[in-house]
Amino acid sequence: MQDFLGTRWSAFLAALQAAARTDAELAAFSANADCRFRLAAGERTADFAFGSLLTVSEDQTGNPFFILEAPVAIWEKFFSFPPPAPYHGIYAMKMRVPEFKVTGSELALAQNMHLVRRVLEIGRDVVNGGLGFKFKKHLIEKPGTKEPVRGGYVWVELEGRPNRIYYEEAGAGRDLLCLHTAGSDSRQFYKLLNDAGLAAEWRMVAFDLPWHGKSLPPEGAPIGEWDLTTERYVAAIEAVIGALGLQRPVLLGSSMAGQICLEMALRWGERLGGVIACEASERIVGREVPWTRNPQVNESTFVPEWVHGLMAPQSPPERAREVWWEYSQGGYGVFWGDIRFYGKEWDARERVGKIDTKKCPVIMLTGEYDYSCTPEISRATAAKIPGAQFEVMRGMGHFPMAENPELFLAYLRPALEKLRAR
User: Which end of the chain is more exposed for a tag (fewer CB within 10 A), N or C?
Assistant: First the structure.
């Protein structure tokens, strides 16, 4: 990638345009698109115009909707592979890299983030001579393979209303309850539930919160009213544990589910076998995203793009696409309602130090590419919990069980073994 931001700039832009015009995913994204943005790298600029045909040019021929601007050194990190955290995504740099700036319409960026992300991914691929060889190819099951995962529904009462909760389970042994992230559902755990090694020792259960996945809103509930709170979350987990007869389960969760793992360790310590809290902390600020509930922004493209930047760039493309797809199917306002818990309502700064890890062991794992709940934030929380263990997951982001389950198992297995042995 030597000098691609210097004397090779024109050649780079030509190669990027050629590659982008043959990319099937970008073609699908850009159907009926009307977007113009500029990338500024020091004195070098490139204008991207999406219409009937993508054009990438050094000529500043029109008024861009927005400009992505940073010094050359910042863009060199962004286009490297693997890029160092937090230089791997636009929103990651916007939040964590002071030298990176977005000028112009923030609304237009939110409306077109899927185009921006994909075309710059293609640019990274061009700079590095093709990235396909850098990703480990994972075995695809043969047609006719029947998975050992069992699905079903259980009725529980929450807030005086009957709720039909969908769950999946696999394996036998000690109980492991898997909790999904904001706006998603139990599909995030399908790779773990299919792991024969885990299934030999653990009865793994994953369920969809009300309003999520296959758990429909309770009858009579107004569409869009979902607003997650600590009490609602705890009540749902308690109800599912009781309805499915789980005995001193180990809780596993990431992001908002990692937060609630800490809450459950505090409240339910003696009734749990331990918690594995991923991407968790005592308090997260500034994570509410108004664009996720804005009538001018397509929720089914913006929300998955927002979470896509929270994944590690080394995550297998097929897994990253699954995460994107799952998030594109979230119900109206559900991600917004979950994030209000994660980034606003949840605050355990005065309470996490009271967790008794002799009764309920706490293991915390955070991906190095998580710019929302960074490793430093998680480490500081773990330090306040006497006896808690913390580890950074290298090459991982905010959704370890879904974005790279094969790598996540290298961290999860030792954690579960510690809890099982206990």
Answer: C
Domain boundaries, the chain: 9-130, 150-421
The answer to whether 170 touches 195, Cβ cutoff 8 Å, is no
Q: Tell me the per-residue pLDDT of 348-405, one tens digit each, with 9 for 90 and over.
A: 999 999 999 999 999 999 999 999 999 999 999 999 999 999 999 999 999 999 999 9
Assign 140 a pLDDT band (cuts: 50, 70, 90): low
Question: Within a 10 A sphere around the Cβ of 6, how many other Cβ atoms?
Answer: 12
**189 DSSP assignment:** G
Q: What is the pLDDT of residues 232-247, one digit of tens each?
A: 999 999 999 999 999 9
Let me know: does 114 contact 29? Beta carbons within 8 Å: yes
Strand partners, 179: 207, 253
What CATH class is the domain 150-421?
alpha beta
Q: What CATH code is assigned to 9-130?
A: 3.30.1050.10
Strand partners, 205: 169, 177
Tokens of 305: 């793009």
Q: How far is the C-alpha of 148 from the C-alpha of 209, rounded, in Å?
A: 22
CA 248 to chain centre: 28
9-130 matches 150-421 in fold:
no
